[in-house]
Amino acid sequence: GPAVARYVVVTGSDGYRTVLALAAVGSATVPAAPGGPVVLADRVDGRPLDAGDGPQSLVGPGDLRPARSVRGVVRIEVRAAP
Fold first, then answer.
1. What is the pLDDT of residues 3-16, one digit of tens each?
2. Which residues on adjacent β-strands are paired with residue 79?
3. What is the pLDDT of residue 32?
4. pLDDT category of residue 17 using cuts at 50, 70 and 90
5. How far is the C-alpha of 32 from the C-alpha of 38, rounded, in Å?
6. Kind of pairing, strands 6-12 and 17-21?
7. How far is CA 21 from CA 11, 14, 26, in A?
8. Is 57 exposed, middle or buried (0-12, 13-18, 19+ CB in 10 A)?
9. What is each CA distance from 7 to 50, 64, 74, in whole angstroms?
10. 34-53: per-residue pLDDT in tens?
11. Which of 14, 17, 62, 65 is most exposed by smallest CB count within 10 Å?
């Protein structure tokens, strides 16, 4: 569907960015690409993230490497492929 032609750019406070195909982000009801869905977290073990990781972080719980993880998320953009 239309989600296949869209992607998400997530930027952290340190300038690190990751790009995710919108179709690969996934959810509890929509299958995702290998690695599984990503989560925008504001807590870990019930406690707020510390200043270095928060106030929100993007994590891929099933990722073997944290390449999709972004600490201190400051911007999330959904874009359409040209």
1. 678 899 999 999 99
2. 7
3. 52
4. very high
5. 9
6. antiparallel
7. 15, 22, 10
8. buried
9. 28, 21, 17
10. 556 788 999 999 999 998 88
11. 65
Burial class of residue 55 in the structure, from the number of CB atoms within 10 Å of its CB (0-12 exposed, 13-18 middle, 19+ buried): middle
Cβ(33)–Cβ(26) below 8 Å: yes
Q: What does the pLDDT read at residue 30?
A: 54
Query: What letters, b where the CB count within 10 A reaches 16 and e where it falls short, cover 18-45?
Result: bebebbbbbeeeeebeebebbeebeeee
Give the predicted TM-score (pTM) of the model: 0.81
Tell me how crowded residue 58 is: count the other CB atoms within 10 A of its CB.
23
